[in-house]
Amino acid sequence: MFQVETQERTQVVDVTEKVRDELQGQNVSDGLCTVFVQHTTAGVVVNEAESGLLEDIESFLQNIVPDHDDYRHDRIDDNADSHLRALLLGESATVPIEDGELALGTWQKLLFVECDGPRTRRVRVTVTD
Ligand code: ZN
Question: From ligand 1's centre to the CA of 68, what distance in Å?
Fold first, then answer.
C-alpha cells in the first residue's frame, strides 16, 4: 500500500515508480501485479504520461462529465461528478510481471486519477505468482 497526495480536484499522477517500489522484495519473477484504488471518486488506468496528455485527460473527464450538473447525489454529498468520472476509469489495473519487472509497453505508465481532490489516497498493490 502507498499513499498519493493530490493538490487539484481533477489530477492525473504517474504512480509507476511507486508501484515498482512495492514490487521490490516481493520475490515474484512471473505473475500479475494488481493496482487497486480503495476509493469511489478516484481511478487507475494504464496510459502514456506525457505532460500535455495528462492535462488532456483531466479536461476530457471534465468535458464528458460536466461539473455539478443537477445530479441527485449532489443533494447528499455534492460530488456526483467525481463518482461518475471514477466510474469511467475503473478502480484497478493489472499488469503482467516478467523476470520480476512490470511488463509495461514502452509508453505505458500506471496513472492514478484523482476525481475529487485535494485528498490523501490509498493505493493497494497486490502481487500474485
Ligand atoms: Zn459522494
Answer: 12
Answer whether 34's CB lies under 8 Å from 123's CB: no
Strand pairing report for 101-102 and 120-128:
unpaired
pLDDT digits (tens, 9 = 90+) for 90-104: 999 999 999 999 999
Express each pLDDT in 67-124 by its tens digit. Answer: 989 999 999 999 999 999 999 999 999 999 999 999 999 999 999 999 999 999 999 9
Structurally, how many domains does the chain consist of? 1
* Locus of grid cell 499522477: 13
pTM of the model: 0.96
Give, as residue ranges, everything with CB less than 5 Å from ion ligand 1. Answer: 77, 79
CA of 42 to the centre of ligand 1 (A): 11
User: Which CATH number goes with the domain that contains 61?
Assistant: 2.60.120.460
